[in-house]
Each structure stands twice: as structure tokens, then as C-alpha cells.
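Hey everyone, long-time lurker, first post.

I ran two proteins through the pipeline my lab uses and got sequence/structure pairs for each. Pasting them in order. The first:
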Amino acid sequence: MSTIAKLSAGFAALIAVAPVTLVATAHADDDAVFFSKDNYNCAILANGTIGCDRPVLTTFAFSGLPVPYPQSPQVIADPWVHDGFDYIGKPYTLPGGNPSFEQVANSTDRDGRAALAHAGRVCGLPSSAKSGFTCGTPSDDGGWESGQFVVLR
């Protein structure tokens, strides 16, 4: 085999293996748990921070018509809720996308709905048929500690 053919084969192998390596290291991100729900890609980090990448342009209904409005690209709870402004990257999204919430749910809430518990924080589905989810620090009474939750709908 010629030197050029060997180099070409080696380069092709590197290109084929690189995406697998990137995904594997993204999952090992300090034991973060990544998930997606609706239009949000989220992660619960090992330190308890919850963050979600979300669409920058969204809509709300006004007199039955969708009205577009801009929002920040991330919402973060660490523990207090605030916007994130990383317009270049997607810090809470794995290369190739996050697994669905249902794929990583490892618990249930007091009503038997799917939940994800990690690093002292919990994300769960709403009690109604609405889309979205709630994330935060659960309180002893089954609710959420004041000011430490994220509701995405």
C-alpha cells in the first residue's frame, strides 16, 4: 500500500471515530445528566445546577393569534432562576442532541409520574396535560422550595 493510501485510510478512520469519542466524553461531563423535553435541551450538573438551552424566538397567543417574541437562549437554576446569554454555544446540549426525558427518568413523583433525580435536584412532568416540566429542589411536603424551580411550558 502506498504512503498516500495509508495516510488517506488513517485520516478516514480518524474522521469516523471522532464523533463517537465526542459523544462519549460529553456524557462523562462530571456526571451530568442530559435530557430533552419539548424544545428544550437540559442538563442537571453534578453540583446541582439545572440548565436548559431553549429557542431564542418563541411565541405566545394573543387573541388567538401567535405573536413572536425573543427570549434568552438559556434558563438556569443554580439555585436561583436566571437567564443565560451564551448565544454562541449550547452548554446544555450534547452533540447530536440529548436523550428524551422519558429515556433518562429514574424515579417517580408522589403522583406516580416520571421524574429525574440527580445531585439533590428533581425534574418532573406537570400534573396537567400541558407540555413542559418543572425542575428544582423538592421540599419535605412534596412541593418545591421557594424560588428554586424552573417551569418550562
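...and the second, right after it:
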Amino acid sequence: MMSGLKQVAYYGVAVLILKGLGFFMLPVFTRVLNQQEYGYLNFLVTLCAACSVILSFGLPELIFRHKQTYKHELNSLITECVLVSLTGCLVLTLLVCLNIDSLVLLLPVNVDKLDIYLLLVNLCCSALLSIPYSYWRLQNKAKSYCCACVAHGLSQTMLSLFLLFLGLGVTGVMLSGAICSLVILVLALIRVRKSLIFSFATREAVIKRRDFYFMSSIVLSSICLYVGNGAENWFIVANSNTQTLAIYFVAAQFALMTSFAFEPVRMWWFAKRFEKHNNNAALYGYEATRCLNIAIFISLVMLILSEQLLVLMLPDNYAQSATWVPLLIIVVIFRHHADLLNIGCFLVHNAKYVFVINAAAALLMLALMAVLVPKYLMTGAVFSLITVHGLRALAFYITSQMLAPIPYKLSQVIVAWLCLFILILIGYSNTDYVTIKRLLVLSIYGAYLVRLYFHDISKIAKQLATVCGYKYA
């Protein structure tokens, strides 16, 4: 338990600093850049996210999956993953350079070619960085992961600030990202060089044909997942302008604070969940439900705080964003359900059901967006997101239980949803003392969780007391 807590703590430090830097830069961006420029920057971020889904090739998931099967061949696996990723990056670079003019014409926003090239450097470095990052997570080297992420975030933030105040605008932000990503990539590869085995000698490949099927399924599923989590940006900017996208993106960022706050637990859990399931399916169900309750509690806390922070941090022309934050937090909670209650879909048939569900969700999302966003803009986008992610979470749970039944105790989550709806209703009602009423509801749910997991909390407290007593004895 303490080893797991220590890992979560390192991941927590990394996420806290990275996301803290991101939110520190949010008021800077919204003041140094006008709304049109900030919307343009967010479109580039959206484009980067779309391409990184493909360029990852599902390699992090493959590394996690192989922990049980190929422990003695892990170094060979890491080497092959680096080679696959490097090949993909070279192919993408060649295609972009040869077709840059056509690519610019296809985009719904007028994008500068220099920004495209800088985005390409960011993409390739991020794809390659995912290999050592995944290796560190798998090997319980959260400290190495934390140091690399923090160094990356701090250096990029400082350089971005410097270039912004030099007047380079969006291009300066993209340039800082490219430079820092490249430097951190070189340092990370040097750090894991002993785990890389490059040889011209003929040897049996660790990545088998079935693994490529698995990777293909993960990539296709990730593309569909991106459609469910990023397509609205394209529809909004195509049917409106970058200013509207900027308002929506700010609301989405504050809603995603809930996901970022849960990220340390998620990163530790996703690296260990296959092992935990193999060891004890019943205990896995209990721990997955506990993680879900933690995720929802964090979401409720952030729901109360995010609206207040938005008003305090940003200029008045972003005040409209606060309206959409609670509804987007519902989307995030649906995503937590889908992520934590889906392991059966990954255990059989090379995760093809993951692709099937995400593909169906993506098609439904595109259909709803195509009909609703041109007419209702952000209202249509948010309605589409809530509908599709709710159905997707239900589909993952039902399918997973059919393939590999897990004794989840979802009755324990009903209280969480009840508190969520009460908090949202209080926020949209024109009553006094909204924050106090919300905090009262949150305290009731917190007391429920303490009662529910009192044994776990007591166990952790005793272990912490033992460690502290040992250190200071």
C-alpha cells in the first residue's frame, strides 16, 4: 500500500505542477493574446491532440499489457517500441513536408506554415517521449517520470513567457514547446539508454503479429475517442470563429481540472489494473469502485471551485465560459465511468470491443454535432457531448460485464450522482448562499465516503504513522 501511495504522490506532484503551470499561463494567454489569437492557439492544440492519437500507435498500452507476459524481455520491447515510434515520426514528417500547401488549405482556420512545422516537432517528440514515460510508470520509477515532466513543464513555461513578452505571440508558444520537448526527449533517452538494445544481429521480435492487431485496435479506438472529445472544437470553429472557440475552450479547461486532479490515481491505477485483475477479480472490483468514488468526489470539489476561479482569473470577456463548466463536468464524470469500468473489453479479442464502442460513439457524435452545432453552436456541442458520453459509459460497462464479469458495487455510486445533481441545481437556481449550500452537500458526501472506506483510511493512517515514527525515531 505504501509503495502505491508513494507512486501516486510522485504522479500527484508531476500533475499538480504541470496543470498548475497550465492554469498559471491561462490568465497570461487571455491577456497577452486577444480572443482571436487565443482561439487560434487552442485550434493548434486541438490539431496536435488529434495527430498525437495516431502517432502514439498504442505503444504505451502495449507496454503495460506486456508486463505479465514478457517480464524478461522488457528491454527488447522498449527498444522495438522506440523504433516503431521513430519510423512513424519520420513518415509523418515526410508526408507533411511534401504536402504542406494542401494541408493548410484543408484546415478550417488559416494556419501559418511555420506553426505547422513547429507543431510537427512537438508531435514527434511527444510520441517518442511516451515510451520512456511508460517504461518508468511500469517499473515503479515514478520519481524519474516526475522529474522529467516537471523539468519539461517549467522550462516550457519560462521560455513561453519570455517569447510572449518579446512579441512573438502564438508562434513563440509553439517554438518554446518544440525546443523544450526536443531537449527533454534527448535527456529521457539518455536516462533509459541501458534499457535500449540496438543490434544488427537477427533475433526474434518481441512485438508479435497479435500485438499489431492490439495496437491497431487501440489506435482506431483512440481516434474514435478523440472524435468524442475533440470534434466539437472543429465544428465550433468551422461554424463560428476562433473567438467562440476560445470561450468554449476556457470552459472545457476548467471542467478538465476535475480530470487533472484525479490523474495521479489514474496513472498509477492504469499501469497496475491488469495485474490487479489477474491477482484478485473481486478485490479489483472493490478498488475500481473506490477509484470511481474518489474521481466523483474530486469532480464535485472542482465544480464548486472552478466557477469561482474562472471569474477571478480571467478577463470579463470570458465570463460566459462559467455557464458551461458544470455541464462539461458531467461529461468528465461519464468518462471516468467508462475508463474505470471497462477492463473486460481489453481482456479478450485484442480489445476489439473497445474500438467497436468508441466507433459507434464517434459516429453518433459526428451525427449530432453535424445537426446541432451549426444551429445551436455551444449548446448543441455540450448536449451532444453529454448524450454520447453517457451512452458510451453504459455500453462499456455492459459489454465489459458480459465479457469478464466483475463484482462492482455500483450502488455505492448512487449517492455521488445524487449529490452532483443537487450541486448543479443549486448553481443554476437564483438563490442566496449558493457556495455555502454546495459545501454543505459536499460535506455530506464526504462523510458518506469516510464511513464507506473507513477501514482503508484507518489502514493508510496507521501505515503513515508507522513510517513517520520510523523516520523520526
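Reply from user beta_strand_b:
Welcome! Quick read of the second one: Residues 1-207 form one domain. The longest helix spans residues 242-279.
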